[in-house]
Amino acid sequence: MSRTRQKLYEIIFEADTPTGKLFDVVLLFVILLSVALVMLESVPFIRQDYRTHLHILEWIITGIFTAEYFLRILIVRKPFQYIFSFYGIIDFLSVIPTYIGLFLVGSHSLVVIRILRMLRIFRILKLSRYTQAGRSLVRALWASREKISVFIFFVIVLVIVIGTVMYLIEGEANGFTSIPRGIYWAIVTLTTVGYGDISPQTSLGQFMASIVMIMGYAIIAVPTGIVTAEIINPSRRDNTQVCPQCLWHHHDDDAVYCKKCGAKINPPA
Amino acid sequence: MSRTRQKLYEIIFEADTPTGKLFDVVLLFVILLSVALVMLESVPFIRQDYRTHLHILEWIITGIFTAEYFLRILIVRKPFQYIFSFYGIIDFLSVIPTYIGLFLVGSHSLVVIRILRMLRIFRILKLSRYTQAGRSLVRALWASREKISVFIFFVIVLVIVIGTVMYLIEGEANGFTSIPRGIYWAIVTLTTVGYGDISPQTSLGQFMASIVMIMGYAIIAVPTGIVTAEIINPSRRDNTQVCPQCLWHHHDDDAVYCKKCGAKINPPA
Amino acid sequence: MSRTRQKLYEIIFEADTPTGKLFDVVLLFVILLSVALVMLESVPFIRQDYRTHLHILEWIITGIFTAEYFLRILIVRKPFQYIFSFYGIIDFLSVIPTYIGLFLVGSHSLVVIRILRMLRIFRILKLSRYTQAGRSLVRALWASREKISVFIFFVIVLVIVIGTVMYLIEGEANGFTSIPRGIYWAIVTLTTVGYGDISPQTSLGQFMASIVMIMGYAIIAVPTGIVTAEIINPSRRDNTQVCPQCLWHHHDDDAVYCKKCGAKINPPA
Amino acid sequence: MSRTRQKLYEIIFEADTPTGKLFDVVLLFVILLSVALVMLESVPFIRQDYRTHLHILEWIITGIFTAEYFLRILIVRKPFQYIFSFYGIIDFLSVIPTYIGLFLVGSHSLVVIRILRMLRIFRILKLSRYTQAGRSLVRALWASREKISVFIFFVIVLVIVIGTVMYLIEGEANGFTSIPRGIYWAIVTLTTVGYGDISPQTSLGQFMASIVMIMGYAIIAVPTGIVTAEIINPSRRDNTQVCPQCLWHHHDDDAVYCKKCGAKINPPA
Predict the structure, then answer these.
(1) What pLDDT is stored for residue B242 in this prediction?
(2) What confidence tens digit (pLDDT) does each residue in A106-116 have?
(3) N or C: which end of chain B has fewer CB within 10 A?
(4) Which residues form a coiled coil (chains A, B, C, D) (predicted)?
(5) Whole-angstrom Cα distance, residue C184 to residue C182?
(6) How far is D194 from chain C (nearest CA, A)?
């Protein structure tokens, strides 16, 4: 029994064996199908014309996911730890909305929960070789979190000021019906999205908008600069060398001698 | 008396003690509430339905800010220096509009002044650890101010030329009613905002617009390049030192010894 | 005979001789004319007014391309290898739609195939000095393919979640008629394109959109950072060599000797 | 006489003396006023209400520029060289439209020519300290001209293909009335401008548009990467060192020893 369990564990939780890989590929396909189904269900004419087909497919997928969920609980060594882990909760939320839907027909908002099935893809990908690339991107973003926070805080203060000024200049007649709407316009403009649902009509408003847009030019360069710098020099932050002579500790990664006192420092391993 | 004053000074002006930190957090909350209030007041239906509630809250906040303002004047050693300092003026402008509003009912533009309360957040943040990240960003932007000025000047000349040409091509019938409006369109296009409130209708105009947009591709790269370079190599600029022993010449501005061979290099004059 | 063939080969396939260059320039001109023709043909009023002119020009160009195609088959040493090569197929697809059009009048979709003539430009450019610049760009994009894939996968997951949430918030009355349409809106917003054909109407929707746009600020920095890093340090990746004499470790992949101290370093296996 | 001429030369052509600087500042003011005048003249209601005022101001400015133009011819050593130089032609074009306007009343297009007065600003700025920053930007753009040309050529091929495909998918009913219009849409989308004057209406078209937009994410990173790399490492291109032993010639700027054969190479002066 224990050997079967071990084998099933390797198939379901790992991806080193051919059957383990096959299991992952099949699961990936079912997840993608399931997400596509949730999307298609929201399209009015598909929902009406293919109601039965969608219904049957949904129950097949829910069946597969339910079986997989119980299999995982049976096989894993510490079931409760799995059930309350991140992926355990995701797995639970992937199947429960369909069952609830039996009693609460028409509970429309449950689609959001079923779309969470998509997050199950990450578990499969975690095993693949693309993770390293992903990790280095996350690390770069994480390392620049302080600078990006400061930047976003500055942008928020800026759009509040711009939004208020534009609310006063343009007024309610030109679509700037309140300060929050003015702020919404300021964000749409500064991020260069530019829907055009609200746009300045007065000459003064258009002049102000022009300044905001040109300002946005310099501003959009900042997050790019932060992230690029972090990707290019990822390790400058994590350098923990301390000069044995003068105790200075901001050495570059390629430093062999302390640039402050000339003493030799230990190169990174 | 002097000791109480010293303690109050530590609470109000500094953030090293627990009570000092608590004071800052409470103040931050009141400021954010106050800014939210100004925003909500501008929304038509909220202004009508909750007039009394907003009024009462506004007076409570003004009361807190007024008390805080006088406390600061009393506690600080040089009251006049505080009153005419940047934050002293902000503090004054944070409370005065509400009092003026007693006599000049309906003075709508005063909302702008009250939104300045937001700037008081910066005083609190100045004490936090996020400031270093902010300072390095400001330094990078400040160090690239000349290049960015030149760039923005070039962009202004470019949009004036493009705006004039488009005004002639499209004419008043297609929304390009004047050269300034043409320039406004050129800015909206070159910054990739693209509201669509004015867009070229003639074939020649759309061809010109296509060239402007593709040109904008190369142009938007310039400020990003400037700021990124400044963030990556903040101090490399203008450093012309060469190590007399190993001839390496990418020394940081603060280097005294060559980090490659340990030889002493001549510091900049 | 063999010498004439060799000379024709040099003219048609190479660009080292003056006649070879002339041939390429003429061919480039004919290709550009041909592509312009396909475009003009699609403009309704030109198609009606200049039907005969376009027809004659089209047949002249097809004649030139057909002659060139057979010449290439005759001259090349391994005709079949050429016929089934990438450019051989492109050359074939460049002429065949016009002949098919003789029998199937009005087969509108054939214009797509004729636009492929444009790809023939690449063969001519392959011989020019601009190729090196192109190759280094392609290499930079290719080297960052893993990171960009991970990034695009992350963006896709993000827009699916955002699109679903917005579909629920805004609903079908405000243009978010289905989840796919919500996802379309999310992509339009996150990439800062911002058509404005669908835009949030409710306050909550505009608030969500604001968060998405500011998030887009940090997100757009990521691909820029990846590509920039790759262009700046094209070969630094994965190189773990350390000079045995001076311990410097930023060697290029093709380095055999340390460029800092001249000691021999071990080439990668 | 010669000394007066020398002094006038210093005042008009140079900016080292106080009077020379004053002359430049006054001229800059007149130029900006003149450009503002041309812009204001294009605004319908200003043109009607202030016709006389604009007329008088225009003649005063033309008078100043005419006087300056003849003064320059008189003072300069080689008058003909000045007249046919870039700035000589600009100076001539700055005054002639007003005189022509005496005979050809209503010649509207002449405004374009008068806007060229703006280019005279560059002559004044050439003498200022901002030029160095400008030059380094121009150098960075110039050094990356090959890569940017290849990039723009690639973008043009891409938008032609995308535009043709979208013309076939969406058709004339949805605003894609011809291939050139499809290409215009593709440029508007790929550059993230997004006017929204033409936007895909069919599901397939919106799906295609989504792919184009996400593709645009990676594409917009390329010019930024090129220019950033050039600003960060401006001198890597101009390295002309050749290894005296193995004749390899792609050395980095910081190379002291040839990384191919280990021979010492001459460091840049």
Answers:
(1) 65
(2) 656 676 678 88
(3) C
(4) none
(5) 5
(6) 5
Which pLDDT score is estimated for C160?
Answer: 92
Contacts of residue B53, Cβ cutoff 8 Å, sequence gap at least 6: none
pLDDT at C105: 64
Give the tens place of pLDDT for each residue, B149-166. 888 888 998 999 999 999
Q: What is the mean pLDDT of residues C135-161?
A: 86
Contact state of D191 with B247 under an 8 Å Cβ cutoff: no
Q: Residue for token digits 């095993």?
A: A127
Interface predicted TM-score of the whole assembly (ipTM), two decimals? 0.80
Among the partner residues C146, C194, C218, nearest to A193 by beta-carbon distance:
C194
If DSSP codes are grouped into helix, strand and coil, which group holds residue C120?
Answer: helix
Averaged pLDDT, C221-228: 87
Q: Where are the domains of chain C?
A: 3-130, 145-231
For residues C35 and C113, the answer to whether their CB atoms sit within 8 Å is: no
Q: How far is B198 from chain A (nearest CA, A)?
A: 10
Burial class of residue A56 in the structure, from the number of CB atoms within 10 Å of its CB (0-12 exposed, 13-18 middle, 19+ buried)? exposed
CB neighbour list of residue D66: distance below 8 Å, 6 or more residues apart = D95
The structure tokens listed for C65 are 């391309």
Q: B46: nearest CA in chain A?
A: A178
CATH topology of domain A145-231: Helix Hairpins (1.10.287)
Cβ–Cβ contact C194 with A under 8 A: yes
| Torsion over CA: C122, C128, C132, C137 (sign) | negative
Give CATH for domain C3-130. Answer: 1.20.120.350
CB contact under 8 A, D192 and A192: yes
Please say if the pLDDT value at position D59 is more than 60: yes
